[in-house]
Amino acid sequence: MKKAVTNNEFIPFYQSIYSKKQNKFIAAEVLCRWHSNGIIIPPSEFIADLEKTDEIKEVTFSLIKRSFDTIKRANINKDFMLSFNFTVTMLLDKDFMKKIIHFIKENPMIKNRIIIELTESENNFIYLNEIKEVMYQLKKESVLLSIDDVGTGYSNLITIQELPFDIMKIDRCFISDNFAVSQSNMLETLANLGDSLNLMIVAEGIETAAELNKINRLNIDLCQGFYYSTPCNSSEFTHRTISEPHLYN
Question: N or C: which end of the chain has fewer CB within 10 A?
């Protein structure tokens, strides 16, 4: 894995986020893929291991630089945003966050366009005060903050209410009929929670018209999923911005 980092084998893929109200893509989540010997390896096969190493920081920083360079070259709308996954462990690394903040200061075009999306496989949200301090430093640099997979894992009501998030992402399990929990009122509860906290809400994993209708009934505007956009590499992402400019500008 260290060799793969040295060889720049971890590359960005993009999955766009669609606004129904604006009738266009307004952002994209930058996903990590491993390009090894001509094969694209999905994150399910490596990301958990990568997150346990210091290399995850170098990979994330590289994804940020390469992705913003891509949208700059593609001349995408100046309001278009990019979202990057950070673990809480990464957020609590002072040296790494100084590096991120310095990069943003040195590249003003990134301000108001970068979203840091917190994901967590370990219960590091217990360090609320430390996390909050870093998050406010980021907000001073016009970084938007998102919490992933609300309602699952270690994210909870205290976390959402105590930390200065701008965006909450609702996991597909609350939307798709393939999951039993989707038959409960949890989706409506989470949507109401987001509204009460004045958060932007993104519905993840939208794949069918039926799922789209479900979130439409709750007036959720932002959607991410195969129904609107499949993950693609930088070349395809750039091509889409050229062939479908009305969706990106």
Answer: C
Each residue of 6-60: pLDDT tens digit? 999 999 999 999 999 999 999 999 999 999 999 999 999 999 999 989 999 999 9
DSSP percent split of the chain into helix, strand, coil, nearest 5: 45, 25, 30
- Cα–Cα–Cα angle for 173, 176, 179, nearest 5°? 55
CA distance 160 to 145: 11
CA distance 51 to 41: 16
Closest CA to 215 of 16, 14, 19, 15: 19
Alpha-carbon dihedral 135, 138, 143, 149, rounded to 10 degrees: -30
| pLDDT surpasses 90 at 242 | no
Q: How far apart are CA 14 and CA 234, in angstroms?
A: 7
Helix (H, G, I), strand (E, B) or coil at 232: strand
Q: Is the pLDDT of residue 181 over 80?
A: no
Q: Are 200 and 191 spatial neighbours (Cβ–Cβ below 8 Å)?
A: no
Pick the closest to residue 30 from 100, 95, 96, 80 (CA basis). 80
For 26, the enclosing helix (H) or strand (E) is: strand 24-36
